Model the fold of this input.
Amino acid sequence: MVVFDIRAGGSKTRDTARWRDPKRYMWIYGLAIPASPFLAWVLVHYLHLGVFWAAGALIIAVVCPLVDRFARLDTSNPPEAVMKQLENDKYYRRCTYMYLPLQYAGLFFGCWMWVSQPMGWAEMFAMASTLGIVGGVGINAAHELGHKRTKHERLLAKVALAQSCYGHFYVEHNLGHHIRVATPEDPATARFGEGYWRFLPRSVFGGLVSAWRYESARLRRRRVSVWNVRRNNILNAWLMSVVLYVVLIAVFGWGIAPWLAVQAVMAVMFLEGVNYLEHYGLLRRRRADGKYEKVAAEHSWNSDHVCSNAFLYNLQRHSDHHANPLRRYQTLRSMDGAPQLPAGYAVLVILSLFPPLWRKVMDKRLLDHYDHDLSRINVDPLARRRVVAKYS
Done:
């Protein structure tokens, strides 16, 4: 248990404030996601309803939004005096480490279910959706680990990404997105008036091209061949995916190959849904020298909904994450000045799949954030005429 004595003004007094992290054990609940393939089997076995093969998707799409709806928002922050010791408490990083063995145990278990259980096509798709959610949240675990300086955590980030074949995210997110966030140049920043289905290919392929450009430049500076698999962080991350899929198909047969592809696509769609909502329409201003202003709280959408944050390692406290990328999830703060989302990520990722509903909920909120000044908003060039006609 993290316990701290905080002495006012640095003076020694008998009255000390003892602070205990009230969310210390909340992060264990997030392991329900990688455990969901096993939960799916239990529910189907005892309730005899094939819909429960989609247990992972049901947790994200039903359980999480319901808890967020009725739980109080959590806007509390750790005191500044405890930050360093809280950051160094290894319990919290073990919570992210525990995700990976469960993730891969669930993946192998899901493959076994595909070949051993009397499933119809719909039930096999339901299991693919569960594994896709596990892989998608696994990308978020990789996001947390990949920001750290330790070699073993960065290696674990690539391992977490292997299931979804999204290894280039390891490079693009750190070297690309965090530099260009909330600018028109960032493929992972959604623009005002841009629907999710148009954003998705732009972010996926734009991120891939950007990642290769950054990694190639890094290797050239070190006079290393771009095709050096050991040194190229994209190639060796992809190689992990190849080895993983070869092993799975060798063990369980070619019949699982289409479903492995389905779960990987669903994982990527979930991750890109999160990307879509995190910076929708937000824009950093250009300075007189042509460079963009420093990233501030106002350039990321924030959410203090409890359940979504528990499952996503405080990712929804996104403004503080961009201000302090190396800060561990347990110390991320709810920041003043950050625009607030009306719900947790779980609800809004689903909402983003329906662009008219998304615009109805989010466009007014974005306009209010910028006092209806379109010049301050990152407007989609393909939608500019429509947006100006409607809102100017």
User: Anything to note?
Assistant: Residues 53 and 177 are 35 Å apart (CA to CA). The beta strands are 3-6, 17-20.
